[in-house]
Structures are given as C-alpha cells and as structure tokens.
Design brief:
The protein is 68% helix and 0% strand. By secondary structure, the chain is mainly α. It is rod-shaped and about 150 Å long. The C terminus is likely disordered.
C-alpha cells in the first residue's frame, strides 16, 4: 500500500517492478475473494500475490468478527487495499445474504460479493431444506458464495428438521424467536408439509382406512392422533387437545358417540326397549350404558334424588325428564306452573295426569294408555295420589285388579322393568323405588284391554 516517491516514479525499472507487484497483489486479493487456491510464493510477484491473498483473507475474517463486536479497522488496516477488499467483501456478502432471507435480490450493479452471497444463500437454503447433498463444485465458487451457501444450507436443514418434527409429534413447538429468516422459511415449509401429511393420515382413520405400511412419520402421527381423538370422544371425554389431526378424529368420534347415545336415549324414553341386537361389541357397550343411565336418570329425577352421574349426558337427559314429571305433579297439587328443562316430558306427564284423573274419577283400573316411560311414571304416581285422595274422602275404593287376573285368556304382562337388568340399573331402581310401580302399570295395560272387550260386548 506504500506509494512510490517522485524519484522512484522517475525510475522506469522501479516502476516496472512496482506495477508488477501491485498487479500481483490485486490478483492475490481477488484470488481469495474468488475462492481460488493460495498463490505460489516462490517468485517475487508470487510473494506479493500471496501476501495480498493473506491480507484479504484476514480482512474478510476480521470483518466477520467486527460485525459481532462492533470494532472498526485500524488506520494501518484501512491503508492496506488488500485487507480492505476482504473486509468490504464480507460486509457486502451480508447484504446479499440478508436479501436472500427476505427475497430481496441485489441490483445488477451491486458489489459482486453481495450478488454471490445472495445466490449462494438461495441455493444453500433450497438444498438444505430438501435434504439434498451440497453442490459438488462448491469449492470453485467465490468465498462469499461458499460461506452464504453453507450457512443457509445448515440453517434451512435445521429449520426443516424442526418444522417436520413439530408437525409429526405432540409437545412444545420450536421457539423461533432468535432464528434466522432462512431457518423460519424452511421450518414453515416443512411444518406445512408435515401438517398436510398428518391431516391425510387423520382423514384415512376417519374414513375407516388402515394406516398404510409406507406411511410417513407425519401421516402415521396424524392417523394415531385421530384415533386417540376418536377414542376419547367415544369414551365421553372432553377433547384433550386442539391439534387438527386429533380434532378430526375427535369430531368423527363425537358424531358417532352422539348418534349412539341419542339413539339409546330415544329408545329408553320412548318405551321401545333395548335396540342393540345388531350393534358391534363397542357400540353395544356404549348403547347399553347410555340406555341404562337414561332410565336411571329418569327415576332419580322423578324421585328428587341427588344426581348420581352429573357429568353423563344420558343420565342428565333422563333426569330432566324425571324432574319434569315431578314438577308436573307438584304443580297439579299446588296449582302452579313450574319452568322445566324438558317441556316435552312435562306436557306428556300432564297428559298422563289427565288420564289418571279420569280413570280414578270413573273407578277404572290403573291402565296407562301410553307405554312411554315418562307417561307411565307420571300416570302411576298421579293415579296413586288421586286414588288416595278419593279414598280419603270416602267416595270410592280402589278398583285396581290384581296382577294374577287371567280372565279372557289374557296372559299377565311379565315384569320387564323399564331398567335393563344390570347391576348399575338394579341399584338405580332400588334407590328410586319407582320401578315396581312402572311394572305394575304395564300390567294395567292388560286390564284396560279386558275392560275394552267387555265394553264392546
């Protein structure tokens, strides 16, 4: 970097050597920037080229360190053209690398180091994210290109790995706070890919397909998560997660669970009896429990018992119906009108009450016109209550026949209680004290049939 004196400038021989050394130095510094091999220093010009190569390399390396520490080159370093070429090349390369992360391509007249770093980062990010091998001729590229390529390759590879893993497993996702733009881009792309595969796996489960043996980690994860969601829903559990694959299975399971439960509730409260003969084992178990809990709730609600299963929708459905019966009977006694959760059952209980009132008034035997358990329960309780009131007034005695009457060859109804015969339901029946009354009411149906026959004669 030392400039010749006037006397030296006047010496042709000196200037020839000076210019040759200057050119060698320029070539040496550029050789480093171009990613070329270290010059041969066995000749005077070779020594100049090698020295410049080393100076440019040091300037490049120092610039990388100074970017972290905030230092600036010394005056002596600033006076060395080769050193400053390397120093500036690094700074320019960072501009290009940053542009690659934001998809901002350098202008056509931008420094070569900036353009090389941009191109290297783009290529490295692509290969790293895809898990492809590095460029075979990378060593022949400029230093800015090589460094940007390697850095972007590593960042993208790490981001892609983290993104795919986060999309293929449960747990805390990767913290992206201090990650580079290239890392984040690769992460997002890999995460999206894993999410898509997981969604496909979840859809396979929801559609009843078997998990393929060639499933990717993400699709298998999605399949397994959907199965977990489905199982939770069918067990009546609240959702345990919000991830898409789990919820796909959970929603499918919830639909299935709700269908089975609603069917069981409807069958229980309509008096159809169990309709589980054609169900598979899992659905039969769910149906039978739902059916039993509905009937148990009906009895407990009518009896004013504490809720035995406060979190079971089936039990609560029956309980609301039983509460409606209880409210209707109280309203009739007190001449009030109670707001209930199950208005339909309240209205049905009112119909049963009116029949019981008419039957007691006219001295008819207990015989409900409707086998719906809500109706039978309301009728039975109302009949007994009204009959006691009538008897207390001394106006009539009970006209109810015994269960053993077999006139007209009518076989007495068997005592098939509204509750199915399981331990849980037997306990519920004993607690309510109502099931025997329901069975007796069914017997009354046959008494009504006999009465109708006599009336026809």
């Amino acid at each position: 970097g030392t400039q010749p004196t006037d006397a030296q400038k006047a010496d042709p021989n000196y200037m020839t050597g000076y210019n040759a050394a200057q050119k060698a130095a320029d070539n040496g510094a550029q050789a480093f920037l171009n990613g070329q091999a270290h010059p041969d220093d066995s000749t005077p010009t070779g020594k100049a080229a090698a020295a410049a190569y080393d100076a440019a390399k040091k300037g490049y390396t120092d610039a990388a360190a100074d970017a972290q520490s905030g230092k600036e080159p010394t005056d002596a370093q600033k006076a060395d053209p080769s050193y400053m070429k390397g120093y500036q090349a690094y700074k320019d390369s960072q501009t290009g690398y940053t542009g690659a992360g934001t998809d901002t391509k350098p202008a056509a007249d931008a420094p070569q180091a900036a353009q090389d770093a941009y191109n290297g980062a783009i290529a490295g990010a692509k290969d790293g994210a895809a898990g492809a091998p590095k460029e075979s001729d990378l060593a022949t590229k400029s230093q800015a290109y090589q460094d940007a390529y390697n850095k972007a390759y590593d960042d993208a590879a790490a981001g892609a790995k983290a993104g795919y893993q986060d999309g293929s497993q449960s747990g805390t996702p990767t913290d992206l706070t201090n990650k580079s733009a290239i890392y984040k881009q690769a992460y997002a792309a890999a995460k999206a890919k894993a999410d898509a595969e997981a969604t496909a796996g979840a859809a396979d489960f929801a559609q009843g397909k078997s998990a393929p043996t060639t499933a990717t980690a993400a699709s298998q994860y999605g399949y397994d998560r959907a199965k977990a969601g489905f199982d939770d829903a069918n067990a009546g559990k609240p959702a345990q997660s919000t991830d898409a694959a789990y919820m796909a299975g959970y929603n499918a399971g919830l639909k299935h669970y709700t269908t089975v439960n609603n069917t069981a509730q409807d069958d229980a409260l309509s008096g159809k009896g169990r309709q589980d003969a054609n169900l598979d084992d899992a659905d039969k178990a769910a149906y039978d429990q739902a059916y039993a809990r509905t009937i148990a709730g009906l009895n407990d609600g009518a009896n004013g018992a504490a809720k035995a299963y406060p979190d079971d929708a089936n039990y609560l459905k029956g309980y609301a119906a039983g509460q409606a019966v209880k409210a209707l009977l109280a309203d009739k006694q007190n001449n009030t009108k109670t707001a209930v959760d199950d208005q339909a059952s309240y209205d049905l209980a009112n119909q049963a009450y009116l029949q019981a009132q008419d039957d007691v008034k006219n001295g008819r035997a207990k015989a409900p016109n409707n086998q719906n358990p809500v109706y039978v329960l309301a009728y039975d309780l109302a009949y007994d209550q009204l009959l006691k009131e009538k008897e207390a007034q001394g106006t009539a005695t009970s006209a109810e026949p015994t269960a053993t009457t077999t006139t007209d060859n009518v076989t007495p109804a068997t005592k098939s209680s509204v509750l199915p015969a399981t331990g849980e339901e037997t306990t519920a029946a004993n607690n309510s004290g109502l099931i025997l009354g329901l069975a007796a009411s069914f017997l009354g149906l046959f008494a009504a049939a006999k009465r109708n026959k006599r009336d026809e004669k």
